[in-house]
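[09:14] KT: can someone run the structure on this one? pasting the chain below
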Amino acid sequence: MAKRRKAGERTITKRKDGRWEARVVVSYDEKGMPKTKNVTAVSKAKCLEKLEKLKAELGAVTRKCSPTMPFGEWMDFWYQTYCKNTLKESTQATYEQLIYKQIIPKLGHIPLNQLNAGTLEKFYAQLKSNGRLVRRDIYGPGLANSVIRSIHAHCRAALEKAVTEKLIRQNPAIGCKLPPKKSPEVKILTPEAMQKLLYQAQIEGFYEMFMLDLATGLRRGEVVGLQWKDIDLENGTLSVTRQVRYVKGELKIEPPKTKASERSIILSPPVLEMLAEYRKAVDLIWLFPSPVKKEDVPRDPSACRKALARILKRAECEHVPFHAMRHTFASNAFHYGMDVKTLASTIGHESVETTLNVYAHSSEQMKRDAAKKIDEAIGTVLGADVTASDASCGDGNDDGQEPTNGTDKPKTVEFKPYQPKYRKRGTGSVHQVSKNVWEGRYTPTVNGKRIARNIYADSEEECEVKLEVLIKEMKAEFEIK
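[09:31] RB: done, structure tokens below
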């Protein structure tokens, strides 16, 4: 099915002489008939380019607005004329998704003066039962209440403008019955799930990203938007100054979501040690560069979301969205005593300003104490080896009871991470060549030539140990970083 053009753009057609022609409405005559101007070009792309230049020269398209015009045309006119230029590009994409994918296809044919509250309520009910266009297998066929309420807000604003312009007498969207405004269910990771997630993430190359997110509560776009200049390893701080997100199908680097989102976060000593070690392996601008592109660009936020879903499944954990790590951070912060004011400044919230006014301003020391508490909540899980004997005799008590320090430390989970078919780059390969023989191979490229060396062992575990030694020896011999 051909894509329907926006009102006012007319058609782009190929003429009999082989040239492309595009027309745009510039005004209307006394009978209400449109007056147009046209451009021609040898190719469709050139024709579209000329059309955009013509529209820019002419300015906004003047339309013949009337009470009987289709609601879809009025919706498009309202957005293009009164809204678009006042919105950020990322917000424009959100508006356009709802207006051109949901509202206009389903209500656009109804005359403006015939749209009523009953039609709108029926439309909202259809969205609730079967309105989702993507990811239906994950979230179900219906749209969330918050999305439906956003759609209603756009309809109401457009119709209110129609009342102002005296196209209709009253706004039919006022008084419509809407889905309840309830907060979505907040999903967080349990201590056991966090440990299993980080075990599996280390195998698949996402340990540093997930650990940092659990320790700071950053949004997904803020995590992938971090550069090494944002990390002050000496003073132990992290600065949030940008985010990475998709806007109209293109990866964009933008300022943070709100003014409060531009913030500085105190990092705990174990997280700083992790980043210092990770810095040795990443010699690029971005903290988490894209592994699939040659140029120095950040990771794709969508790829990170998919990676989390894959890692959770392999770690035998319940599926949660990427934002759940931010909720987990906030939940741990409250549980381990972080005050609300400090938490709000740490995660970059400004919507709780009224509530936060009753709390004292957070200090740098409070942030450092809070960072330490969050580290206790997550735990250095990969280095932990807590046993019953360690807990009972670690403080010299002889009463047989486990010592406590006021916090509940998560128990270490016995979990063997799933080893994917493909190993991380630079770790060589291991495979079984016979019943009792395993072969390890490391093949680096030195001065444009591949050099291969093998080792053999009686078991996979022994082979991994020998291979690690071989890799260190070859890196030292050929000065490989």
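[09:33] KT: thanks! The first helix runs from residue 44 to 58.
[09:34] RB: yep, looked fine to me
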